[in-house]
Design goal:
The structure holds 2 protein chains of 2 kinds.
Chain A: H1 2-18, H2 20-41, H3 45-68, H4 73-77, H5 80-86, H6 91-120, H7 125-152, H8 159-186, H9 192-221
Chain B: H1 2-9, H2 13-45, H3 59-85, H4 89-121, H5 129-150, H6 154-185, H7 201-233, H8 238-246
The chains are: A mainly alpha, B mainly alpha.
Chain lengths: ~220, ~260
């Protein structure tokens, strides 16, 4: 079981290393999307500081949703997904491995890049710290739920838009607590409650989403 | 034993189709009578509210619609799960038939809420916890309907929809409480719907009657839709061709 998991993660990372532009695309999307807001809202530092956590979180959510549509697509198209699913008891490992590699390739880079955007939006250092901590805890939730959406919409026309429609409502708690942590720090409160809730959400999703994703993969391929 | 057998007989679309057809006019009539009574009590009998005037009277539609919107999501997830777990075709059909009615009630609750908010709060919309979670419920219905209609293979569509409905209903409490917390954190919209004055018993009666009317309406509409979907899916089966052949032909419909 853990063998399948490690092999799949290593495989996905190796595949990504051979298609470097594809890996950079979500981060490029994130950068462009975040940079649009000052142009649309106006350059006042006060306003920007206030909307920064929400903007970064919404852009991270959209970047995750747009990239996750490709999570199973290539393996489904060349038939390797069906071969993988033949391994007894491997469905949950596959779902978890795919979500983990998606997070390593999109969520983690976004969390690492977030301080730069914090500076662009004139956020204070403690607020930037809580933004990064929130992203580290929250983006895995987005990858896990996105994996579920990708499995449900596997091979459908307009699957990408459909995935956003069905998965975004489920991601709302992660956004609320992630952006809320920054707001709490900025108003001088402790963000520990937000971190705890994000952590609880992460554990809850990490236990249940791979099972649901495994079931969705079986539904989509049988 | 024999009653259980008789009950499960109707789990077959062929047996359920005529039964539902007989029940639909009854439920429609009950819905019309109850709704008329509730509207009479609510609009003419219930006292005018001291602070909100007559504007509050939309409550007799708004609150029952909001109740139905939440109840129908749970019922839909339940039948979808039964259909998936036991491979019961009728249960999956019923789940699909419920979704548009549930979405309609959610939209009705939001719409009447906006109409109520304008004269009493002075705004069509506030990002109140209840309004926000009702809006998210509408998104959940929309996601379910979009997913099942995007999948051409009915078996896969039913199962994927069931999974999504179950995941949605597991998430609904989490979403609801996170929205409440988010709302108390941002104290911008401090309008409380809960601070309603004590309700006169005639108001409560009108609201309950309207809820029952909505129930009957939901049964009638869902049965009509269930019959249509069952016919569509079994269009090759003998019972379906018989049912279509026996249906009264509307004169002049083609001319």
């Amino acid at each position: 079981m853990s063998g399948t998991f490690a092999v799949l993660v290593a495989r996905d990372l190796r595949l990504a290393a051979r298609r470097r532009v594809d890996v950079v695309l979500p981060i490029a999307f994130f950068t462009v999307a975040v940079s649009l807001f000052p142009l649309g809202v106006g350059p006042e530092p006060q306003t920007l500081r206030q909307i920064a956590p929400g903007v970064v979180w919404v852009a991270a959510l959209l970047a995750a949703m747009l990239s996750v549509t490709q999570l199973y697509a290539a393996d489904h198209a060349d038939g390797s997904l069906e071969q993988m699913l033949l391994v007894p008891g491997a469905r949950i490992s596959i779902a978890l491995a795919k979500a983990v590699s998606h997070w390593l390739l999109t969520g983690l880079p976004l969390a690492v890049a977030a301080p730069v955007f914090g500076l662009l939006f004139d956020m204070s250092p403690p607020a930037i710290g809580s933004l990064v901590a929130g992203l580290v805890l929250g983006t895995p939730v987005l990858s896990l739920l996105g994996g579920l959406g990708a499995a449900l919409t596997l091979g459908l026309r307009s699957g990408a838009v459909l995935l956003i429609l069905i998965i975004v409502p489920l991601c709302i708690p992660a956004i609320i607590f992630g952006a809320g942590a920054v707001a709490a720090v900025e108003s001088g409160l402790s963000a520990r409650g937000h971190y705890s809730l994000l952590g609880a959400l992460l554990i809850f999703t990490a236990v249940l989403a791979p099972m649901a994703t495994g079931a969705a993969l079986r539904i989509a391929t049988e | 034993m024999s009653t259980t057998l008789r009950f499960f007989r109707f789990a077959s679309p062929a047996a359920f189709y005529p039964l539902a057809g007989k029940l639909v006019p009854w439920f429609a009539a009950i819905a019309a009578i109850l709704a008329a009574t509730a509207l009479y009590l609510g609009m003419l009998r219930a006292p005018t509210d001291a602070t909100q005037g007559d504007a509050y009277r939309i409550i007799f539609i708004h609150v029952p619609a909001a109740w139905m919107s939440m109840l129908l999501y749970v019922v839909m997830a339940f039948w979808a799960a039964i259909g998936w777990a036991f491979n019961a075709r009728l249960a999956s059909i019923v789940a699909r038939a419920i979704a548009p009615t549930g979405a309609m009630f959610t939209f009705l609750a939001l719409w009447t809420g906006a109409l109520w908010g304008k004269p009493t709060w002075g705004t069509w919309w506030v990002w109140d916890a209840r309004l926000t979670s009702e809006l998210i419920l509408l998104f959940l219905y929309a996601g379910y309907i979009a997913l099942v209609s995007a999948i051409d293979d009915t078996r896969r569509a039913d199962r994927a929809g069931a999974l999504l409905a179950i995941v949605g209903s597991v998430n609904v409490p989490i979403i609801y409480f996170s929205v409440i917390w988010w709302n108390t954190l941002h104290q911008g919209a401090s309008v409380s719907v809960t601070a309603a004055p004590k309700m006169a018993s005639v108001m409560l009666l009108a609201m309950l009657l309207m809820t029952l009317a909505f129930w009957a309406y939901a049964f009638a509409v869902i049965f009509v839709r269930t019959r249509a979907i069952a016919l569509e899916r079994d269009n090759h089966a003998a019972w379906a061709t018989d049912a279509v052949a026996r249906a009264p032909v509307r004169q002049g419909a083609s001319s």
